[in-house]
Amino acid sequence: MRLNKYLAHAGVASRRAAEALIVAGKVRVDGAIVRELATTVPVGGVVEVAGKRVEPPTSFTYVVLNKPVAVMTTMRDPQGRRTVADLLPPALPRVVPVGRLDYDTAGLLLLTDDGDLAHRLTHPRFGVEKTYRATVRGRLSPEDVKRVLVGVATPEFRAAGARLRVIATRREGTALDLTIHEGRNRQVRVMFESLGHPVVTLTRLRFGPLTLGALAPGAVRALTQREVQALRTSGE
After folding, report:
1. Which is deepest, 70, 72, 74, 169, by most CB within 10 Å?
2. Which residues are catalytic?
3. Are 199 and 188 in contact (CB under 8 A)?
4. CATH among 3.40.50.1580, 1.20.1260.10, 3.40.190.10, 3.30.70.1560 for 129-207
5. pLDDT string in tens for the chain (236-residue length)
6. What is the CATH topology of the domain spanning 62-125+210-233?
7. Can you name the CATH fold of 3-54?
């Protein structure tokens, strides 16, 4: 197994971050520092990061959290803000978020120690769909809807076409469901800001085959075997 994949499996870091650790000389294999990204770990090999032995788990943990607003999608926060780690059961093995939700965005967040699956689900090549329920200011015009469907050019990026369903239109704003297959930073908010309809509230309802359902804000549940299998085949 390639070393960066081994480290991701062990929950040390993503593959890209693992490569940075390797190049920095912080990883040893069988006692020797390695810096080559093509390094493979032999069967029974001993891998150490910063002097501490690491090993992939023999089984993996998969949980879904309904992240409330005003919670960081990190395991620690230097500013002392509440994080998703504060909401996880104490006995849960070390897991990390797959992707992220903004501080002011709520909803479905997958956490796992399966580095390979996390890499697959966040890689742009697989285009895993995410559905959000948003409330935006103002009423969307037919031209606004068309721009969302074909792709919105913003000052920061050009978003690919998305699926949009208007739930309700009121004088003060519009409620809608939006399905995207990209994972750009604050994508939904930037898209609607560029259309002149700032997002007021945003909740992720679906991530690939997973749905939020009736999971209460701040609550956590384990995935079923069927859901894990569906995740493994999502994007194929």
Report:
1. 72
2. 102
3. yes
4. 3.30.70.1560
5. 899 989 987 878 878 889 999 999 999 999 999 999 999 999 889 999 999 999 887 789 999 999 999 999 999 999 999 999 999 999 998 899 999 999 999 999 999 988 888 888 988 788 899 999 999 999 999 999 999 999 999 999 999 999 999 999 988 899 999 999 998 889 999 999 999 999 999 999 999 999 999 999 999 999 999 999 999 887 55
6. Alpha-Beta Plaits (3.30.70)
7. 3.10.290
Phi, psi of 80 (to 5 degrees): 80, 15
Q: Which of 96, 120, 124, 123 is nearest to 110 (CA)?
A: 96
The domain limits of the chain are 3-54, 62-125+210-233, 129-207
